[in-house]
Amino acid sequence: MLKIILLGYAHGLISSRRIAKACEHNILFMSVSGDIQPHYTSIAGFVAKMHEQIEPLFTQVLMICDEEDLIGRNMFAIDGCKLKSNAS
Question: Which of 1, 20, 34, 45 could form a disulfide linkage to 40, CB 3.0–4.6 angstroms apart?
Answer without folding.
Answer: 20
